[in-house]
Amino acid sequence: MSAEPRHPPRPVLLVTGLSGAGKASILRTLEDLGFETVDNPPLPILAELVADGDAPLAIGVDARSRGFDAAELLRAIARLRADPGIAANLIFATAEEPVLLRRFSETRRRHPLAPGGPLGSRVTEGIAREAALLAPLRDAADLVLDTSDLPLPELRRQIERRFRPENAAGLAIGIVSFGFPKGLPREADLVWDVRFLRNPHYDPALRPLTGRDASIAGFVESDATYRPFWDRMTGMMELLLPRYAAEGKKYLTVAIGCTGGRHRSVLVAERLASHLETLGWRVDLIHRDLAAPPKPGGASAAGQEALAHTP
Q1: Is position 291 annotated in a ligand binding site?
Q2: What are the binding positions for GTP in this chain (predicted)?
Q3: Is residue 22 annotated as involved in ligand binding?
């Protein structure tokens, strides 16, 4: 009896199906999940591809693959399934003929198995030939996906739910603090402007500090508008993030800006990163302008109280 593998079996997915049914989209989704993807390799090197490496692997195979033979491919899949160190699955993408016809018409692509003749009849005959050729693979598939009425985000969700590796990253959130004078971060998807909060710059004792210091935190958080803003901002983020992830978004950059990029934006960015991490999100935190020295200057003692509330 074979010994059980010491590590979880390596996912190896073979992705096939009818041309135009979504095989490329499935492979892109798997690539986003951390799979190494190879599309249409020569079938004789299939075993070599699987043996080379230990990362999750997805291989696209269809009738265009060099040396394609459905029976031989099924034998290769059987060998993979017999290996206790491999979790092999066959995914088959299909769609109804009118849908495939429409997709080929919209993209103006030639069906790979279409013969000569009028365009519509060529595609129809190519679809029929391919369906017959791939029928044994459809019958043996672990998962058949009919994409006729399946929106792309839902296709991605189905693939992610079933094949996401344990260590695969989902939505990656970047939080960037910045100062408005140097411009918005170009990569920003969402921008929060916190210049309405009390500005520590006008207190000479606080000016050299940053939003990472407790004195700055106490000063900014004592602003009566801070708590209502925080509750609404985090509530909005908690509403949006699961929806972005569900739609297949892989990267989201949240930019938080103030006048100098050293005090208020840094504090709020630190707090937001910590809050989202406690909720289980993967967060990268960058303080774009924190290294810049504080600007000199200030206000007279008589004017400091008014200026403290000025953006």
Answers
A1: no
A2: 62-65
A3: yes
Q: Is 17 annotated as a binding residue?
A: yes
What pTM does this model have?
Answer: 0.57
Question: Annotated binding residue at 235?
Answer: no
- pLDDT tens per residue across span 9-66: 889 999 999 988 999 999 999 998 889 999 988 888 888 889 888 889 999 998 877 7
Q: Is position 105 annotated in a ligand binding site?
A: no
Backbone angles phi, psi at 82, to 5 degrees: -80, -10
- The candidate with the shortest Cα–Cα distance to 17, out of 150, 144, 142, is 144
Q: Is 131 annotated as a binding residue?
A: no
211 is in an annotated binding site: no
Domains by residue range for the chain, with CATH: 10-163 (3.40.50.300), 172-307 (no CATH)
Annotated binding residue 63: yes
Contacts of 197 (CB under 8 A, 6+ apart): 220, 223, 225, 226, 229, 258, 264
**3 annotated among ligand-binding-site residues:** no
